[in-house]
Amino acid sequence: MRNWNLPFVSRQRLTLASDARFGLVRYADDQIWELQGSSGKPAGGESAGISLVTTYGLRARNLRIFPRFLENKQAASAPQDFAVQPVLHHFYTNFAALSLAPFPGLQVRIELWVPQSDLLLGRVQITNQGVTRRKLRQEWVVQLNPDENGQRMLVEKVQNTSVLAGRTGNLSPVFFMTGGAEAVQSPFSALCQELELSPGASHECVWGMAGCSETETSFL
After folding, report:
1. What is 145-162 written as a DSSP string?
2. Using CA atoms, how far apart are residues 201 and 182, in angstroms rounded to an integer?
3. How far apart are CA 111 and CA 17, in angstroms?
4. Model-level pTM?
5. What is the pLDDT along the chain (220 residues), one digit of tens a residue?
6. Got the DSSP string for 34-102?
7. Dist. CA 98–CA 93, nearest whole Å
8. What is the CA radius of gyration of the chain?
9. How far, in Å, CA of 196 to CA of 71, rounded?
10. Are 60 and 72 in contact (CB under 8 A)?
């Protein structure tokens, strides 16, 4: 796969969907995502440098996932907050990899993969490239604007694990993150991790967003 260094800025769009050559495609329920480079503040939401958006085939008004980073009471989620703007390195029909620096000396690599129609996976690696120990928090915010009979994403416990779960159309989407992530409800529903990184150290986690008919099925 070719290595690119393409600035991923406002109004750029990249479609991500399951590829029949590499995974399971359910053509009657093919959930397609769009990776967006953003600059403005969306209606009812927070500005985000990058975000993943779907309408679940018009079963939701929209669902949006984006990262947010906090260090020393300073938050970074919008493009103007980042020390280094998002850069796209790899992209394919069902995969994308990009990097950004929310704060000076803090490198974040994000890989996104759609292995099957009802599942989106993300892998995040955060590296302290500075010379001092860093304490920070990473959050992954999930905003669901459901149909008229749905429910936005809320913190729930499934099998004693904190997840974000909602309801829209005939789907019960669930968002989960590894590494003992904690859930926060305000101002937006999110899963977060408190991190402490020595100079040169890295932390890696994986998250998943599944859209099945029942909450338990999405979690599994």
Report:
1. EE-TT-EEEEEEEETTEE
2. 22
3. 14
4. 0.93
5. 788 999 997 778 999 999 999 888 998 999 999 999 874 454 455 678 899 999 999 999 999 999 999 999 899 998 889 999 999 999 999 999 999 999 999 999 999 999 999 999 999 999 999 999 999 999 999 999 999 999 999 999 888 889 999 999 999 999 999 988 999 876 779 999 999 999 999 999 999 999 999 998 888 7
6. EEEE--SPPTTS---SEEEEE-TTTTEEEEEEEEEEEETTEEE-SGGG-SEEEEEEEE-SSEEEEEEEE
7. 15
8. 17
9. 11
10. no
Q: For 41, phi and psi rounded to 5 degrees? A: -95, 115
Cα 92 to chain center, whole Å? 18
Q: Both tokens of residue 71? A: 């260090």
Strand partners, 125: 109, 204
The two three-digit tokens of residue 167, written as one number: 């309801």
Token digits of residue 67 = 């990262």
Q: Distance (Å, rounded) from C-alpha 93 to C-alpha 168?
A: 26
CA angle 130–134–138, rounded 5-degree value: 115
- Paired strand residues for 167: 151
* Neighbouring residues of 206: CB distance < 8 A, sequence distance ≥ 6: 121, 122, 123, 124, 177, 178
Q: In what order do the strands lie in the sheet with 106-116?
A: 6-7, 84-91, 95-103, 106-116, 119-128, 202-212, 172-177, 161-167, 151-158
Enter the tokens of residue 189: 């529903």
Strands 134-146 and 95-103: unpaired
